Amino acid sequence: MGELTKKFWNDDPTSLLRVRGGFRLADVDPGSTPGFNGVDRQNADRALAEGARVLSTLQEKLFAGSKFGDARRVLLVLQAMDTAGKGGIVRHVVGSVDPQGIRLYAFKAPTEEERAHDFLWRVRKRLPDAGLIGVFDRSHYEDVLIARVRRLASPAELEARYGQIREFEQQLADEGTTIVKVMLQIGSDDQKARLMERLDRADKQWKYHPGDVDERMRWDTYQEAYQLALERTSTPAAPWFVVPAEKKWYARLAVRHLLIDALERLALEWPVAAFDVAAEKARLAAT
Amino acid sequence: MGELTKKFWNDDPTSLLRVRGGFRLADVDPGSTPGFNGVDRQNADRALAEGARVLSTLQEKLFAGSKFGDARRVLLVLQAMDTAGKGGIVRHVVGSVDPQGIRLYAFKAPTEEERAHDFLWRVRKRLPDAGLIGVFDRSHYEDVLIARVRRLASPAELEARYGQIREFEQQLADEGTTIVKVMLQIGSDDQKARLMERLDRADKQWKYHPGDVDERMRWDTYQEAYQLALERTSTPAAPWFVVPAEKKWYARLAVRHLLIDALERLALEWPVAAFDVAAEKARLAAT
């Protein structure tokens, strides 16, 4: 763990939150704060602000490197039940990074054209270029989540998709993409309260859709679909992290940490100039 | 002027910075701070933070409205000489808004495919959808700026482009796009110092290109091209604003103000729910 990590964490959340063999989603306490050493919000706010600066510099190094041929990039995949806080992660964690370094895409229900292709076709078109942090708000995982719950694909097709996803992600990793997959976990009661809040507030009602309640009624089936997806597709090349998200500040801190950790592993350096610095200074001075 | 405006401005920068008949770029003092009433940086920092919250809420209302059929959107066009601070505006002003509400595109030298089409072809593909704030880092104006300086088009073709741009922007405005065009203005000496700083700092060298000095040698010709572009294309539907940018904090404050002002003129309201709120509360309560 780096200096920043030590200040705010008792134990490395990258390790604590990672989905490994034997993982059971039902065992995750959505209100817990694994690894965080502060007991109060103030400490979390300080940790968030410091983390923002660290993440920002790392992102700029990644971007700078790509201008000199470094092909590496990062892909953050966000999945969650409605109201769990994907939007807040995008706004507060992704939003703390220079927008020029981000490629964000929110996947909706597939269009007719997209449905005419294999399920990874539309995903390939939204991958980040070298030097960028790609962010998927929902992703190809919908094709083994809502697709399973709503029986939008045959059992054999669903079964095949886990393998196709593993291969796809392995290929991305081989080509230089660091993949960080995050599921934000809340409890069913908390979702109910959050949906009720959307109905209660004039500035939140626009986020509510009557269909949200229909999906909510399938809560247990979704949890089973998540359990399966997590255990079948958490690989060394593309691990899943399940982040307890009832405390929003914790979820933001943890996801930021996961991004910082992924970028630190790349051991990024400022690129060395491909031109003669002294000669350029002389040219510039003469103008 | 709204409450926020009155706190930080003596006079409305939207009016002060706007390019009108008789405008002369050479008369702009790049180190000035038109309209700002604070003498110290602290006041500017407070103004920036307060403005960020205001802008953030306005953007969310714009986005929310689009989910209920409001077709309006905003387009911020950024043009400037190298090092004038376009990147800083994107990072600090655009970056203070929820990334989900932004469509950012940085135009580079046109590709072979792009050159095979008319100069507005590639621009049309990057326009913001309803509810979004589009941001152009460079734009179709390069086709009357570098194209004029470097003689990449015939004099007749260049002359025709001003009219094509006016028509294009009028059409966008008629379709519900509020266009804000910003030129960040620095002085030649300041550019020299900023380029020298890039050469001096290991974390900045990656931003330097030897070609920057070649463009710099054409400073006066660029200023003439800007003068022409500003006077030919600042229209009621798509006005230009020239923002003095030697003081970075001022440029950020002013551009944020221009965006806030553009959004306030839209008189945005939170959309009214298209469903029966009481019935939805009852359905949700029953789950």
UniProtKB/TrEMBL annotation, chains A, B:
Which Pfam family, any one of them, does this sequence belong to? PPK2
- Record bears the keyword Transferase: yes
Q: Name one GO molecular function term.
A: polyphosphate kinase activity
Q: Which InterPro entries match?
A: P-loop_NTPase, Polyphosphate_phosphotransfera, PPK2-rel_1, PPK2-related
Note the superkingdom of the native organism. Bacteria
Any idea which UniProt keywords this protein has?
Answer: Kinase, Transferase
User: What are the recorded Gene Ontology BP terms?
Assistant: polyphosphate metabolic process
Q: What protein is this chain from? A: Polyphosphate kinase 2 family protein
Instruction: Tell me the organism.
Output: Cryobacterium algoritolerans
